[in-house]
Specification:
The chain is of the alpha+beta class and 153 residues long. Helices cover 27% and strands 38% of the residues.
Length: 153
């Protein structure tokens, strides 16, 4: 057993037919907050994105898989809804011209998939942007409605 395993415990990985290999991140003090980390191909970007999937060792649910598929399918519509909010928030933080091509200016790099057991679903999507390579843009969603934009760097 290596030093990291002794200090932090053994890393548990599972294989899922939909999400692929997933690393379980247990939160012993609050098991409902435990989650998996993984990467999966995201059709709208044509690349893999990082995923955080809330869950237990039993693995992701069909609702979570359906949620991911729905985000992929409705991505252009979602982008149209969150673009104005990003323009306002990002523009207040630094000069930002109107977003001309969201797909070339903002690249999705992460998606938080909650348990999906309560409606509306609270979730986040994270983007890299060509407007500032040192920061990422996180959009918090409630169902299909953007709620906030957070810029981290």
């Amino acid at each position: 057993m290596g030093i990291w395993s002794r200090l932090f415990g053994k890393t548990t990985k599972i294989g899922d037919a939909f999400f692929g290999e997933m690393t379980f991140m247990e939160i012993p003090s609050d098991p409902a907050q435990s989650y998996f980390e993984c990467e999966r191909y995201f059709e709208p970007s044509g690349e893999k994105i990082g995923l955080s999937v809330t869950g237990s060792l039993t693995g992701p649910t069909q609702r979570q898989k359906d949620f991911f598929t729905r985000v992929e399918a409705t991505y252009p519509w979602l982008v149209a809804k969150l673009t104005p909010l990003i323009e306002v928030e990002f523009g207040a933080w630094m000069p930002l011209p109107f977003i001309r091509s969201f797909i070339t200016e903002f690249k999705p790099i992460g998606l938080e998939i909650p348990a999906c057991d309560k409606l509306p679903i609270e979730w986040e999507i994270v983007f890299d942007t060509v407007h500032d390579v040192n920061h990422i843009v996180t959009v918090g969603m409630l169902g299909d409605e953007p709620q906030y934009v957070r810029i981290d760097g």
